[in-house]
Amino acid sequence: MKALKKTPLLRKASKAFLLNSIAFMLLSGVALYFYTQSLLQNEIEEELLSTKDRVEHLLQSNPNIQDIPPVIAIAKSKIQQKNSLKDTLIYDPLQDEVELFRQLSGTKLINGTNYRITVRAMVIESQQILLAIVFIFLLLIVLAFVFLFYLNRSRNAKLWQPFFNNLARIKSFNVKSDEPIHLEESDILEFDELNQEVAHLTSKIQVDYRNLKQFTEDVSHEIQTPLAMMQAKIETGFNEPDLSEGQYVMLSALQDDIRRLKNLNKRLILLAKIENNQFTQEEEISIKNIVVEITGNFRELTDTVFELKGNTPLQVKMDPHLAQILCTNLISNAVKYTIENQPILIKFTAKSLQICNAGVQELKDATQVFDRFYKEGNQKDSTGLGLSIVKKICEHYGFYPSYSFKNKADSTENIGFHCFEIKFFT
Amino acid sequence: MKFLIAEDEQDLRDAIVNYLSDEANICEQAADFNEASEKLELYDYDIAVLDINLITGSGLDLLKRLKAQNKSCGVIIISANNSLENKLEGLDLGADDYITKPFHLAELNSRIKAVLRRSSFGGNDSITFHELRLDTASRTAFVNEKAISLTRKEYDLLLFFITNQGRVLSKAIIAEHLWGDDSDMLDNFDFIYVHINNLRRKLTTEGAKYIQTAYGTGYKFTAI
User: How far apart are CA B164 and CA B177, in angstroms?
Assistant: First the structure.
């Protein structure tokens, strides 16, 4: 489906008003022109007829009437002719110009003599009147429309103002906050209804969100005690004198499963805590120092080599605990997924941290890599939460996390790099 | 030594008591706040292990009372909530250590022993096991009073083994003790082998063959 072009409400209303009024002005202007023109023409014709009548009347008492060129011409004629109207161009000696005249000409039998009487009237005057009328009409109507346009616009703006104010409040509404949404009251019925619906919906969303969060937290905490009991029983089982090797293997597998649950739990709690804004401590921290420390710790746990590049300390203002978690999760993700014997490349720039681990091909759903429980491949022990915690921390501080896949330029091997970058500053 | 375990979940309490009791240690139990409070008033303990969420009250209140009475009892707080605030509150009130559920019994045991070592009464810088001796002040190990050179992790590992002597320890238990949260970062505990094998080699060359393999993948520190 094609996306509709979006126009602001007030502009749309003004545009409709403008288009309609221009169409109205043109149509009414044209109509007025033709109507006035026909009126004026009738007027001239009636005048001509009455002038002709007068001339005929005069001829009855005085057959020697002079012509008044070019408006009246009298001639004796032998042919009978009916009245005929036409436009004609005649030289007017007074103005020394050829002018357009309306001419009525016809014959009349007066006192036994057949006269041909022609009367004329100048059209130019009526043309000027016509134009003047249409011009004044258009001028008035344009003025009226301009006035109406601005009146309408300011009226509209005022009318819709509560709507715009409330829209702004809805936009800045945060589901995570405990504050209910405050909407401006309106004396317009529909706006008031809209406000009530929005208030109702948002409060429901807030309650649902809080419940969900509370549920996650409660479950996470409540689950700890049963886990502790299971773990304790397993350890008691380890020390039973007649334990068989098969039973030991089973118990230690159970222990690993519990550990997975525990990790999952711990991360869910951490996510909830970040969402609850429970990390409020802020310090200037060198990301580089943290990474150096973490990679140092990792040397005891893995044979993977870390190659650190860049001299900038990368000072960032954030909670030290979260900084530690951010870097640990990124590095541990790289260690988990890298190809054996391939180093992990860590680069510091003035604004960002980049961590790259070797991989065969780009992730299929690169956009989802930071989502909860997204797993690529069959890494069985991953909680799928490490990178979503990274994302959550980034969201919390306004950092920008990204993923990209880079092919190794100088190698014919089918190996590239999964690169995770955190931009701390824009 | 005399311990009080205040934990409202009976299964967990039983498992802890069972693990900690031996010929040298007596464990008493309290199932709720009132029982724990009464016992702490009446008797003297070397260590009290207090669950924060006791049905009828908070372990932290027990801790406050203990401190108000000025008793020289080491306190370890157990919590189902690993929030930093809770932890800090517990430690601020004078708890000696803090452990979050779920925990390994071997870990709890090792924390208790550490508190006992640090306490002014009966505190001792030396731990001996047959010809082995650990000096906890200088973090050095001796075999027949001859110092052996151990890395930091190997020393911690040996201390953990001696503390939990005669118990079966899985790789997970050892990894979590030595690396704590960092052990979550990796999926398998193969890296543990290296450290255990190094320690075992160093001890064996001095004739101290106490690290036994149990059930294929576990370990047990024992003189057979």
Answer: 12
How many domains does chain B contain in total?
2
Q: Say which of B167, B172, B195 has its CB closest to residue A239.
A: B167
Residues B47 and B75 in one domain: yes
| Helix or strand run (H / E) with residue A8 | none
Which residues of chain A lie closer than 8 angstroms to B11, CB-CB?
229, 232-233
Shared domain for B142 and B109, answered yes or no, is: no
Tell me, yes or no, whether B100 and B142 share the same domain: no
Domain boundary among B118, B135, B160: B118
Same structural domain, B156 and B104: no
Q: Assess whether B40 and B56 both reside in one domain.
A: yes
Which one of B82, B170, B186 has the shortest CB-CB distance to A252? B170
Residues B133, B199 share a domain: yes
- A301:B186 CB<8 A: yes
Residue B63 · residue B76 · CB < 8 Å? no
Checking DSSP bridges between strand B218-221 and strand B168-169, what pairing results, if any? antiparallel
Q: Are residues B11 and B98 in the same domain?
A: yes
β-pair type (B97-100, B74-79): parallel
ipTM of the complex: 0.88
The Cα of A212 is separated from the nearest Cα of chain B by a number of Å equal to 18
Beta carbons of B217 and A252 less than 8 Å apart: yes
- Decide which of A420 and A68 is more confident: A420
Helix-strand-coil split of chain A, %, nearest 5? 55, 20, 30
> B8, B16, B215: best mutation site toward chain A, by most A Cβ within 10 Å?
B215
Contact criterion met (CB < 8 Å) for B105 and A302: no
Specify which residues B5 forms β-bridges with: B29, B49
**Structure confidence by residue, pLDDT tens digits, A13-56:** 888 888 998 998 889 989 998 998 898 888 888 988 998 888 88
Q: Are B16 and B104 found together in one domain?
A: yes
Phi-psi region of B110 (alpha: psi -120 to 50; beta: other; left: phi over 0): alpha
For B87-132, the pLDDT digits (tens) are 778 788 889 999 988 899 999 999 999 998 887 655 577 888 998 9
- State whether the Cα torsion B58-B63-B68-B69 is positive or negative: positive
Q: Give the end-to-end CA distance of chain A in Å, rounded to a whole number.
A: 35
Cα-based distances in Å from A280 to A318, A328, B5: 9, 20, 35
What domain range is B191 assigned to?
126-221
